[in-house]
C-alpha cells in the first residue's frame, strides 16, 4: 500500500496551495475554456491531416516557464494556464530539437514532448461492493444525502442510454482526435461502461460530468488528460474517475494530479493491466491518487492487474457485465475486463461517503474506505475442487510483464464496502460454520449461524457469495459429496458480513465384494455404485497392486483414493471414468490414456515415476507436483488450460507436445531435464519462467510442426548455457523474446528464431552452423557477433531490419541475400539502409547477390576473399572493397566512385562496369591493371610502397602512398609493425600490445598535386648485427572511426641492400654509397 499522507500534512498542503490556486483559477476560468477550444481544434486539425495520435503527440512540446519563451522554429503555439505553453511542430524531429532548446533556458521549470495515455480496458460487481445494499438502506431509512459531483475523464458517454437520464451531463469538452466536435459523446464504449457502473452503485444524488480525452481507440495525449483533470477541478468536481495509465512519467499529468489534490478533489485511478509493478506507471504510482487493482468473481487477483505497494484498493474488474452500449462497441461482447472497470466501484464508495459526510477531506475519505475493506484473507479463495478457467479465447494471448512475489502486494487494503464506509449502521458478524474443513468418510449435517435477525446466503461454487448468486440458508446442509461452502450474513439493519469458507473432501470405503481382481493383484472390474471411493488394500485376500486395462473404467467415478500398495495403472485403466480427484501415494507407473475422459483437478501421486502417452489429457488442476517423475510419453499434459505451474524436478526428457496448448502455464521447474523435444511448449502463451539448469539439447526427434516454444509470448529471456543444438522453429513467434544466451550451442537449425520481432541481444560464442532463415524477421537485433561461425544458410539474417553490425571472424562463405530485407507480401527484395558494418576476415567466397540492396554498407574489408559471384553488389552501397587475395570475380561494387583493392593474385574478372568512376588499386603490370585499362577505369599501383635503404644513417624505410577517390576525411595515418615475418591478421590496431606489436602515428606526410598522400616508416642507425633482422609493417588510415590497412611488407636491411646492389637501374652513386657503408661497418 502507498504510504498514507498524514492528515496534518494534507491539510497543510491544501491550505498552502489554496492560497495560491484559488486566485489563479478564479482569474483563469475563461482562459481554461479558451485552451480547451484551441486544443480541440488542434486535435481535430491533426486528425484531418491523417496524422495518427502517436505522431501528433511526439511533435508537440509542452513547456512550463516563468517567462514566455520565444518560439523555437516554426510551430503553432497555444498559451495554457499556470505558465504552461504548448508548441505544435510538423515533425517529431523538429519537436526534439525544440525540446533541447526549451530545456536549456534557465527560466524554464520543465519541458517535455507530449505522450499517450491509454484506457485500461481489457465486465457482476455491485453485490460484492454492496452498491444495491447501500442504496436500499438509504431509501428504507430515509437517509439525507448531499449532492456529489463526479467527473469522468475518459472516452465519453453514450448519453442516449436511458440509465443516464438525469444522472450524466455532457461537458461539451472533446479533447480527443475523434468523436463529435463540442461534445463528450462516446465512440468507444469504455467511458459509457464506467459511467454505468457508477450509476448502478449510487443513488441519484451522485451526478456525473463527462470530459472526453480518449479517442475511439482508447488513446489520449498526456496534455488532453491533464486538461480534462484541470477542467474537472475548475468545474467543481468532488471526485475524478480516471482509468488511464502510462509507463512514462509526465510532468503535465503530475502537475494536474497535484493541482486536484491541492484543491481537495479525489482522483481514483486504475492500477493498469500489464501484470507489472504499479510503481512503473503514472499516475497510478502517485500518493495523490487512490489506485485500484482488479479481482475476479471469486475474489482472486485478476490475472492482468498490476500489483505492488502503491495499490490502495481492489474491486471487481474481470468480465464485468455491460449494459446498452452495443451500438458503440462489438455487438457480441457482453462483458469487459480491466482495472478501468474496478475504478468506478471505488468512485461510488467514495461518493457515498461524501454523500453523508461532505466535509471530509481526501485522507479522511480514504481512511473510511480502508476501514470498510474486506481483507485479502477473506477475498482470495480457491477450494481446489473446482475447475476455474482464468483465461478465455479473447485473453489467452495476454502479455503479463512480471509476477507478484507475494499475495499481499496484489490486494492493497482490500475491497471497500459501500455501506460500511458510510458508517451509518453496524456490520453483521461473520457466519459460524459447525464443522471445520477436512477429509471425511461419512456424510454429516452442517449448520450455519449468524447474528439474530440476519439471513445467511451460501454458495458451493467458490464464488464470492451474495443474495443474487447464493442460496438462502433455511436449515442444516447435508454434506455427502466433496464440496466447499462460502457464506455471508445479511440483514436490513446492518451491512453484510465478511465471507467465510470451509472445504470438505468426501470419500467412502468401497466393499471388496464389488471388485474383480487377477492373480497379479490388479483390479479388472468394478460393479459397485460409489462415485467417491477409497479402494480397499486387499480384495478376497489378495493385496491390490494395480489396475488392469479398463479395470476401473466406470463413468460415474469422480474420486478414487488408492492404498499405498497400488503401484501401477495400466493402459486405459480408468479410460471412461469422469474422474476429478486421483490420490495414490504408492503409484509409480501410469500407462497410456489412463484417464482419457476425466477432468482431474487434484492429482496426488508423489511417487509417480513413469507416465505413458496421453496418460492424463486435459488435467484441470492449477499446480502440478510430480517430484519423482523421470520418464513420460508424448502429449501427457497437452491442453491443460488451467495449469499455471508445473514442478517436475526429476524428469529427464520433456517429450513432444508435452505441454502443448497449456496457454496459462507460467512457471516450469525441470531441474534434471537434459532434453526438450519439438513442440513441447507450443502455444504456452503465458510461459515465462523455465528452470532447466541441466538442459543439454533442444532435440528434434519428432518433426516440428510449430516449434518447441512456438508462440510463448511471455518469454522475454532465455539462458541455456549447456544446450549444444537448437531445433527447427524452436522459438518461432516468441514475439517478446528480448535476450537469448546459448554458451555451448554449436548448431542453430532452420527458422529457430523466426519472427522474434523484439529480440535484441544474442550470445552464441560457440555457434558454428546456422540454418536457413534462422533469424528471419528478427527486427530488433542491432549487432550480431559469432566468434566461431563457419557457415550459415540463405536468408539466415534476412529482414533483420535494425541490424547494423555483423562480426564472424571464422566465417568462410557469404550466401545469397544474407542480410537483405524481403517483403513476404509483395515478394520483393527491399533496401536495407541500417546494415553498415561487416567484419568477416576469413570469408573466401561471396555468393551471387550477397550484398544486394545493402545501401548502408559502404566499406568491406575481406582480406581472405578469393571468389565473388554474380551481382553480389546489386543495388548495394559498397564503395570500398579490400580483397588482396581475390582470384576471380563475376561482379564488383557498383556505387559511384567505388574503389577495389586487389593484388597480382587476381586472374579473372568478367564484370563489365557501366559506371567508369570505379577505381582499381592493384599491382602494376598485373591482370588488375590490364582489366582497368580494358574497361577504361582509373588504375593506382598499390606497390607505390615497399622497402628502401637510407645509406646516410644505416636506415630502413617503408614507404606508403594513399589516394582516396571518395575524398573522405582521414582521421589518422599510421603504421603497425613487429619483428620477424607476420601474418596480416596479426598486425592490426587491435593486436597492439606495445611489446611485440607496435604502433607509430605518421605525423609527417606529404600531399602531392594529384592528392596522393605519402608517408614513411623509417628505422635509422641499425647496427650491423641486426642487418638480417626482418621487420614486418603495414600502413593504416582511419576513416569514420574504422581502420583500413595496406598489405603487409616484410624486409630486412640486407634484403633491401642486396636488391639495390643487384638492380641495374639503380644509379652508381647510390651503390657506391651503400658499399662504403658496408666497408665502414
Helical segment count? 16
The CATH architecture designation of the largest domain is 3-Layer(aba) Sandwich
CATH topology of the largest domain: Rossmann fold
Low-confidence stretches: 1-30, 119-123, 326-332, 945-952
Beta fraction: 25-35%
N→C terminal distance: 91 Å
Query: Care to count the β-strands?
Result: 79
Return the domain count.
Answer: 6
Radius of gyration: 39 Å
The biggest sheet amounts to: 7 strands, parallel
Quick one: overall form? Answer: flat
- Going by CATH, the homologous superfamily of the largest domain would be Peptidase S8/S53 domain
Q: What is the average of the pLDDT values? A: 87
Percent of residues in helices: 10-25%
How are the strands of the biggest sheet laid out side by side?
Answer: 7-8-6-10-12-13-14
**CATH first level of the largest domain:** Alpha Beta
Going by helix content, strand content and strand pairing, the class is alpha/beta
Domain Peptidase S8/S53: 147-373
Keywords: Hydrolase, Protease, Serine protease, Signal
Active site: 154 (charge relay system), 190 (charge relay system), 340 (charge relay system)
Protein name: Leucine-rich repeat protein
General description of the model:
- The longest helix has about 40 residues, at about 5-50.
- The strands form 21 sheets. A seven-stranded parallel sheet has the order 7-8-6-10-12-13-14, sandwiched between helices. Strands 29-30-34-36-38-40-42 form a seven-stranded mixed sheet, with no helix packed on it. A five-stranded mixed sheet has the order 19-27-25-22-23, with no helix packed on it.
- Residues about 1-30, about 120-125, about 325-330 and about 945-950 have low confidence and may be disordered.
- It is an alpha/beta fold and about 1100 residues long.
- It is built from 16 helices and 79 strands.
- The chain folds into six domains: about 20-115, 2-Layer Sandwich (Alpha-Beta Plaits), CATH 3.30.70; about 120-380 and about 390-410, Rossmann fold (3-Layer(aba) Sandwich); about 425-505, Immunoglobulins (Immunoglobulin-like, Sandwich), CATH 2.60.40.10; about 510-615, Ribonuclease Inhibitor (Leucine-rich repeat, LRR (right-handed beta-alpha superhelix)), CATH 3.80.10.10; about 780-945, no CATH class; about 945-1080, Immunoglobulins (Immunoglobulin-like), CATH 2.60.40.10.
- InterPro entries: Fn3_assoc_repeat, LRR_5, LRR_dom_sf, Peptidase_S8/S53_dom, Peptidase_S8/S53_dom_sf, Peptidase_S8_Ser-AS, Peptidase_S8_subtilisin-rel, Surface_bspA-like.
- GO terms for molecular function: serine-type endopeptidase activity.
- Keywords: Hydrolase, Protease, Serine protease, Signal.
- This is Leucine-rich repeat protein.
